[in-house]
């Protein structure tokens, strides 16, 4: 075993994977990486499994020291990372040698940065997942603290050269996004004009936004406040009694009783998760088939992207 | 019954829009059949009062084909996977103002004595309609209308683990300490969630409450030290 000693986790850092699936009927939140796009590429760059655990770092500020040689990857918000003071590029892999110190600044745009390691971080697994849902307070599943150690167990693997994701596949988070929404076909508890009002409005990300949900500030809708509670998905847009829409994210509760306007697909939730309070977002309707096709194309791109032994990308999609 | 996509990776099956205890057996049956027949495609099956939400892998199947596979499993008697009948679970509760700080005010608001409230809360048999809010938190109904009271206007920042609360015609035991707005009338020493067995309750179980005194509460493993913070009714 080897690992990374965390000197400073920054404002918030949690270990995340694809989430804790199959246990929502016990009331356990699924959790999981909020930006699936950046998370999946952090693993793909290292030839990891799709669900190996990465560190999800919020607003940079993270510093740590390698206990032994580690191959790591950085994706998501660009924090102008440095290793022993020398800049390293984002969306790529690099080697940390024993005693090397990695330091992340504050990103100019975006919110979440993923630090992957060969084989994934080997923190506690519970119900098949290492994802941390801080609110649930489960033992060994809390945000990373200063002075703690992230264990890694490097599997035997042919020595890889450093790899970088081609520029056209890297994401940048400066522009206000227009997110897709699959409309609820019979939105009980809402005014019939609300879906139209919502789709033609621009909203700002509210201050009380976190991994549980994103609040939207803008034209209020006419919610009657409650329906019979039912299961809610990542991206489900709920409208509480104050009329301010709320988009549920990975650490959501498993059921919800507010009227539902529609659902943002997971890959667009990934983009939303990179937005900060105060940023603008707008919306467009999409149908389920389009969102499924886009997800399938993303998976295909991940599996078809390969690198040669010199680290050159051979994009076969 | 109505089947609708909720997202690109989930479908919601709706049996009705009103809470009805008669729906729960049909919902529990559908859950058991979906779990056993579609295990390869399904990631989560979440029953609630009048619905089942089914989460699946959109990379392996598209929603039209998934609905075609799902539909026959929603009909009753469509397979040999009928669910076991809901279990009967009795939970001990220490009903006392020290354990449930809203008990005196709730009794006053209902025009009843504290003993009347306890009797009416323990006479009924409750059905588990849904789990959610926090790990192991079961929504139980229906509470006798004469002791049904709304949530506190200002929720507590911290409700101690084991607290028994009322919100409208629902009642519940908080499995872990959390914020919460239900009116607290007592405390239960039984753990409703632990990491070995996960949630004690499942949708469809029948729950009754049995009053115990402080001594029995402590002997059953209850923690009487932590007090709830003040809520505003």
UniProtKB/TrEMBL annotation, chain A:
Presence of keyword Lyase: no
Protein keywords: ATP-binding, Hydrolase, Nucleotide-binding
GO MF assignments: ATP binding; hydrolase activity
UniProt key word Hydrolase: yes
Any Pfam family the entry gives: CT_A_B
Domain of life: Bacteria
InterPro entries per UniProt: CT_A_B, Cyclophilin-like_dom_sf, PxpC
Domain Carboxyltransferase stretches: 25-301
This protein's name: Biotin-dependent carboxylase uncharacterized domain-containing protein
From TrEMBL, chain B:
Keyword set includes Lipoprotein: no
Gene Ontology MF annotations: ATP binding; hydrolase activity
Carboxyltransferase domain sequence ranges: 1-201
InterPro entries the record matches: CT_C_D, Cyclophilin-like_dom_sf, PxpB
Any matching Pfam family: CT_C_D
Keywords linked to the UniProt accession: ATP-binding, Hydrolase, Nucleotide-binding
Gene3D superfamilies in alphabetical order: 3.30.1360.40, Cyclophilin-like
Recorded superkingdom: Bacteria
Matching PANTHER family: 5-OXOPROLINASE SUBUNIT B
Protein name: Sensor histidine kinase inhibitor, KipI family
Species this protein is from: Marinobacter daqiaonensis
Origin organism lineage: Bacteria, Pseudomonadati, Pseudomonadota, Gammaproteobacteria, Pseudomonadales
């Amino acid at each position: 075993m080897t690992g990374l000693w965390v000197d400073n986790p920054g404002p918030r850092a949690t270990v995340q994977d694809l989430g804790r699936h199959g246990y929502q009927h016990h009331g356990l939140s699924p959790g999981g990486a909020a930006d699936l796009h950046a998370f999946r590429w952090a693993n793909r760059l290292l030839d990891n499994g799709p669900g190996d655990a990465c560190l999800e770092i919020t607003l940079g500020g993270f510093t740590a020291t390698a206990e032994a040689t580690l191959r790591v990857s950085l994706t998501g918000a660009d924090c102008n990372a440095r290793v022993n003071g020398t800049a390293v590029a984002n969306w790529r892999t690099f080697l940390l040698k024993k005693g090397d110190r990695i330091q992340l600044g504050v990103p100019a745009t975006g919110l979440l940065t993923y630090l992957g390691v060969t084989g994934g971080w080997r923190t506690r697994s519970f119900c098949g997942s290492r994802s941390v849902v801080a609110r649930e307070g489960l033992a060994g599943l809390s945000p990373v603290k200063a002075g703690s150690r992230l264990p890694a167990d490097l599997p035997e693997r042919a020595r890889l050269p450093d790899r970088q994701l081609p520029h056209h596949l890297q994401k940048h988070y400066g522009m206000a996004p227009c997110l897709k929404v699959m409309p609820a076909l019979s939105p009980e508890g809402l005014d019939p004009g609300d879906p139209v009002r919502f789709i033609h409005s621009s909203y700002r990300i509210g201050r009380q936004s976190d991994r549980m949900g994103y609040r939207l500030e803008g034209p209020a809708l006419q919610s009657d406040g409650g329906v019979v509670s039912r299961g809610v998905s990542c991206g489900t847009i709920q409208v509480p009694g104050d009329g301010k829409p709320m988009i549920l994210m990975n650490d959501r509760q498993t059921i919800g009783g507010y009227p539902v306007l529609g659902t943002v697909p997971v890959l667009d939730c990934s983009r939303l998760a990179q937005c900060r309070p105060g940023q603008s977002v707008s919306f467009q309707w999409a149908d389920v088939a389009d969102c499924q096709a886009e997800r399938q194309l993303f998976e295909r791109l991940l599996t078809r992207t390969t690198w040669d032994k010199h680290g050159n990308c051979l994009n076969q999609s | 019954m109505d089947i609708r996509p909720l997202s690109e990776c989930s479908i919601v099956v709706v049996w009705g829009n009103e809470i009805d205890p008669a729906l729960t057996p049909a919902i529990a049956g559908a859950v058991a059949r979906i779990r056993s027949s579609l295990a390869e495609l399904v990631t989560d099956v979440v029953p609630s009062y009048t619905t089942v939400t089914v989460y699946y892998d959109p990379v392996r199947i598209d929603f039209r084909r998934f609905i075609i596979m799902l539909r026959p499993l929603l009909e009753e008697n469509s397979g040999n996977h009928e669910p076991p009948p809901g279990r009967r679970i009795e939970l001990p509760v220490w009903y006392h103002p020290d354990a449930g700080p809203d008990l005196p005010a709730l009794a006053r608001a209902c025009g009843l004595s504290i003993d009347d409230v306890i009797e009416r809360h323990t006479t009924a048999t409750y059905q588990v309609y849904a789990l959610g809010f926090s790990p192991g938190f079961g929504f139980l109904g229906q509470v006798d209308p004469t002791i049904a009271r709304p949530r506190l206007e200002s929720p507590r920042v911290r409700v101690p683990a084991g607290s028994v609360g009322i919100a409208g015609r629902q009642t519940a035991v908080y499995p872990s300490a959390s914020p919460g707005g239900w009116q607290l009338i007592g405390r239960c020493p039984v753990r409703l969630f632990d990491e070995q067995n996960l949630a004690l309750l499942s949708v469809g179980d029948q729950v009754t409450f049995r009053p115990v005194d402080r001594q029995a509460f402590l002997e059953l493993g209850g923690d009487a030290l932590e007090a709830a913070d003040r809520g505003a009714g």
